[in-house]
Amino acid sequence: MLSAAEQFHILADGAAEIVPEEELMAKLESSVRHKRPLTVKLGCDPSRPDLHLGHAVVLYKLRQFQELGHHAALIVGDFTAMIGDPSGRTKARPQLSLEETRQNAQTYVEQAMKVLLPERLSIRFNSEWLEQLTFRELITVAAQCTVAQMLEREDFARRYARGDPIGLHEFLYPLAQALDSVAIRADVELGGTDQRFNLLMGRHIQRFYGQEVQCLVLMPLLEGTDGVEKMSKSLGNYIALTDPPTEMFGKLMSIPDSLIVRYYRLAAFASAEEAQKLEEGLRSGSWHPRDAKAFVARRIVAFYHGEEAAQHAAEEFDRVFKYHELPKDMPEIVLPVPVVSVVDLLVHAGLVPSRSEARRQIQQGAVRIDGERVTDWRSEVELSRERVIAVGKRRFARVRYGTAEAPGHS
Asked: How many CA atoms lie within 13 A of 258 on its CB side?
């Protein structure tokens, strides 16, 4: 193990806040002295099936704890996802069934392994202890918190001031998350800055149960590709950890120039010194924003898919956007009909997930056939020759008439 001071320097790098710093330092000193790894907790609710780069900011901090010899506990909130975390929300989240959350959770662990080290990791599902909680026990825990404390939360306070409804079940979410910390006797809990209230509740409830309380390491929130809102699947501004290399690279190249250094720091896991050098280069003009963005995009894609895939993604991006050529690896689709509606064509080629999305993309002017924009979603396409279909800037397919299963019409 490194010394406590050396560990603290690494762990504090990139963190928005450590609560409280002196307690984390004391825990690290005790860990080194007694050769006892800390138990470091990160909870994630499988309200949706995919993780994105915003989640990876915190996952990588958990990996740093692992690399320093500590034990990571990934708490999959299959039970708490049924409540829905109210943090940062302007209204209650839709409630999910336990079956839905467990289906989503199946992909979570696999995706988290893209960042975490499996040899120093335990994975727990919080239904293990929360589902067994009796009503008597729930009342006992709930008595440790007041309504006034809950209304100190900024999101609850705003909703209450506007007269927007706040479900009683939403007040239970921080308590449930706190019980996760009790269940595993967490020494440290990680989360985004929007999780501050929930993580502090963990300290409060651990103290009630007579446990040594956890320290908090809060990480910055990563803005999405729109450059404004926090990265979120519901807002459509996310980059999934499972995105193919070319799609991931293309999305990264679409971020605003103002976020280049921030993505380098938070999504490419660059050190403070590396980020400062890039920022100075952009300011002095020695780095062109496009080149800097491509540099950051390659580093991120390489982390998840390897150097070869990152190189290929960069070359494909240049081929399409810099040299205005078609990508080499377009899928080739064979349809058994010589004429097909443009909506069915997009769906059957796998370029859109549904007919409604096909119509929306056409109405937005995002669809081109052989370089010509399609403006009428009712139009039909003749396949007497091979056609190149494009949706937006990153989705392409070659389509021709031949022997295959007919596309569905509805």
From this structure: 7
Tell me the fold of 332-401.
3.10.290
Count other C-beta atoms under 10 Å from residue 60's C-beta. Answer: 18
Helices 168-184, 196-208: inter-axial angle, 10-degree rounding:
60
Whole-Å CA distances, 212 to 5, 12, 23, 184, 203? 21, 21, 11, 12, 8
CA–CA separation, 170 vs 147, rounded Å? 12
381 beta partners: 340
CA–CA distance, 157 with 147 (Å, rounded to integer): 11
How many angstroms separate the first and last alpha carbons of the chain?
Answer: 63
Distances 132 to 35, 135, 173 between C-alpha atoms, Å: 34, 10, 16
Q: Has domain 245-322 been given CATH number 1.10.240.10?
A: yes
DSSP tag of 49? S
Buried b (16+ CB within 10 A) or exposed e, 364-380: eebbebeeeebeebeee
pLDDT for 287-318, tens place per residue?
999 999 999 999 999 999 999 999 999 998 88
CB contact at 8 A, 296 and 253: no
For domain 4-219, say whether CATH 3.40.50.620 is its number.
yes
Which pLDDT score, from 0 to 100, does residue 405 have? 47
| Single-letter amino acid code for the residue at 205 | I
Helix (H) or strand (E) holding 305: helix 289-305
Q: What is the dihedral of CA 259, 264, 269, 275, to 10 degrees?
A: -110
Regions of the chain short of the pLDDT cut 50: 404-410
Per-position DSSP letters for 171-230, written without gaps between them:
HHHHHHHHHHHHHHT-SEEEEEGGGHHHHHHHHHHHHHTTPPPPEEEEEPPPB-TTSSSB
Looking at residue 175, what is its pLDDT? 96
133: alpha, beta or left? (left if phi > 0; alpha if psi -120 to 50): beta
Q: What is the percent of the chain with per-residue pLDDT over 90, rounded to a whole number?
A: 63
Question: Cβ distance 405 to 366 under 8 Å?
Answer: no
- HSE-CB at 359 with a 13 A cutoff on CA atoms is 4
C-alpha 329/C-alpha 363 separation (Å) is 27
In this prediction, residue 410 carries a pLDDT of: 38
User: Three-state SS across 241-269?
Assistant: CCCCHHHHHHHHHCCCHHHHHHHHHHCCC
The domain locations on the chain are 4-219, 245-322, 332-401
Same CATH fold assignment for domains 4-219 and 332-401 = no
